[in-house]
Structures are given as structure tokens and as C-alpha cells.
UniProtKB/TrEMBL annotation:
Keywords: ATP-binding, Nucleotide-binding, Transport
Annotated Pfam families: ABC_tran
Molecular-function GO terms, alphabetical: ATP binding
All copies of domain ABC transporter, residue ranges: 2-241
Keyword Kinase among UniProt keywords: no
Name recorded for this polypeptide: ABC transporter ATP-binding protein
InterPro entries, alphabetized: AAA+_ATPase, ABC_transporter-like_ATP-bd, ABC_transporter-like_CS, MacB-like_ATP-bd, P-loop_NTPase
Origin organism lineage: Bacteria, Bacillati, Bacillota, Clostridia, Lachnospirales
């Protein structure tokens, strides 16, 4: 589904080139829930932005559902973003003047398929994700966790190949954040949705099936959840300590 091969990306500062992603290789299969973690500056957002088609990369390959992203023009990239990807952001990005249900339908309107089927799907998802009671409310009238669950539903409304989530729990307390992780689990379990998330937080990462640890623009290690969530959390904490050099 998503293949990243030898991805290399640098930024220029004056005439000097600073590599940020150095030969990243990864694969995410259909229905996987995967997090990327790593210290500040390790390249997490840059990786997500390359996959999102928001920034170009110099070398390597990204293939999303069989489409190679390098060499696509702006129109084709916008089509990939609209049709193949769903987005969840740290600050929700809901439109204040629209109700929760109307917000959820916005990607259908952008794609030009705001039809009866879209309305039915919105109603089904509002129930499935436990936010039907806030459908007619405005974003300012609901909690942060409810706003983010609405954003998760919005990201699903065009039935994307993959959801990209950038620090989706960054503005939430642990109880609300947990409901958002459960919403991603629900999307995976009920709709076989693939989720790729950037997070700083090992507790929220422990809800994932797999965690990719980045360090200095390279994959330091990939960890898979083989037991329960709390033992995976312990493994993540130990490996992050090892990565930061606290233990050998
Ligand atoms: N547009 C840019 N121009 C120049 N350098 C940039 C740009 N964007 C990011 N960088 C640099 O690239 C490196 C990686 O940044 P990136 O935001 O991908 O890291 P990150 O792991 O997401 O960090 P954080 O956890 O702090 O968000 C950093 O050193 C950053 O300063």
C-alpha cells in the first residue's frame, strides 16, 4: 500500500545543504495502524509532508496504492491528496461556522461528490464513532476529544486509502486522547482503514500495531506490538531510552 524507498530530503540554509531524511525505507500494509516517533528535529513532520505530497523530495521513491508520487505535477498531487488520503491535524482544523455534520461533509464537497451516498455515510459514521449526539452542534460547543473524533470521521468520508495524522492528540488530555486512539482502532477494525500517525507520546503510540522510531533522519528501529498495549508501552519507553543514549 505505502512504500517508501531510499527517501532523501534536504533543506538549504544559505548555500549549505542539510540532509533531514537520509535513505528512509518503510512499508505500511492495508489496515495497519502505525506511528512514527523520534526526537524533535528527527524528521517526522518532513516524512509525513513528503507522503502527503505537500513538499517535494530529491531522491528515492514513494508509492501510494500503486501510484509513484515523484514526478507528478501539482494537479495530479492535489488529486492524490483528495482521493487517496485523509488528514487529521493537531488543531482539528474544523470550520467554526459549520456544524459537526457539515464539517464532516466538506471533503465530499471539495471532491465534487456531495451526494446522498455521502450523507448516508456521514450519518453511519457519526453513529459508529459515538458522536451522533453532537451532529448539529458547532465546533465551539463540543469538547476537544469530540472535535478530534469529528476530524477522524471527516478524514474517512471519501474512503481514503490512508489517514495521515500529525500529532492528533497534541492538544488533548490523556482521557480525550485515548478516545481518539480508539476512534483510529475503530476505523481500522470496522473499515480496514490504514492509519499513519506522527506522535511524541509513547502512551498514544502504544495503541498502534507498529511504531517506527526515527533518529537523525534515519530509521533507528521498528517495533511491533506482539502482546497487550501496556507491555508494548513498556517496550517503547525502554527503546526510546536506549535511542537517547540513557541506557546501552
Ligand atoms: N522548511 C524548512 N526549511 C529548513 N529547514 C527545515 C524546514 N522544515 C524543517 N526543517 C528542519 O528539518 C529538521 C527536521 O524537521 P522536522 O520538522 O521534520 O522534525 P520533527 O521530527 O517533526 O520535529 P518536531 O518533533 O520538533 O516537530 C529540523 O532540523 C528542522 O529545523
Amino acid at each position: 500500500m505505502l512504500y517508501v524507498k531510499n527517501l532523501y530530503k534536504s533543506y538549504l540554509s544559505g548555500s549549505k545543504e542539510y540532509p533531514v531524511l537520509k535513505k528512509i525505507n518503510l512499508h505500511i500494509g492495508v489496515g495497519e495502524f502505525v506511528a512514527v516517533m523520534g526526537p524533535s528535529g528527527s524528521g517526522k513532520s518532513t516524512l509525513l509532508n513528503c507522503i502527503s505530497c505537500y513538499i517535494p523530495f530529491e531522491k528515492g521513491e514513494i508509492r501510494l496504492g500503486g501510484t509513484a508520487l515523484a514526478n507528478l505535477d501539482e494537479t495530479a498531487l492535489a488529486k492524490v491528496r483528495n482521493e487517496k488520503l485523509g488528514f487529521v491535524f493537531q488543531d482539528f482544523m474544523l470550520l467554526d461556522g459549520l456544524t459537526i455534520r457539515e464539517n464532516i461533509l466538506v471533503p465530499r464537497i471539495i471532491r465534487g461528490n456531495a451526494d446522498h451516498e455521502g450523507e448516508e455515510l456521514a450519518d453511519h459514521l457519526l453513529t459508529l464513532f459515538g458522536i451522533d449526539h453532537i451532529r448539529s452542534k458547532y465546533p465551539a460547543e463540543v469538547s476537544g476529544g469530540e472535535r478530534q473524533r469529528a476530524a477522524v470521521v471527516r478524514s474517512l468520508i471519501n474512503r481514503p486509502l490512508m489517514i495521515l495524522a500529525d500529532e492528533p492528540t497534541g492538544n488533548l488530555d490523556s482521557k480525550s486522547g485515548r478516545t481518539v486512539m480508539e476512534a483510529f482502532e475503530n476505523a481500522r477494525n470496522q473499515m480496514n482503514t490504514t492509519v499513519f500517525m506522527v506522535t511524541h507520546d509513547s502512551f498514544f503510540a502504544s495503541f498502534c500495531d507498529r511504531v517506527i522510531l526515527l533518529k537523525d533522519g534515519m530509521v533507528f528501529r521498528e517495533l511491533e506490538k506482539n502482546g497487550n498495549r501496556s507491555s508494548f508501552h513498556e517496550l517503547l519507553l525502554t527503546t526510546i531510552k536506549e535511542m537517547s543514549g540513557d541506557i546501552q
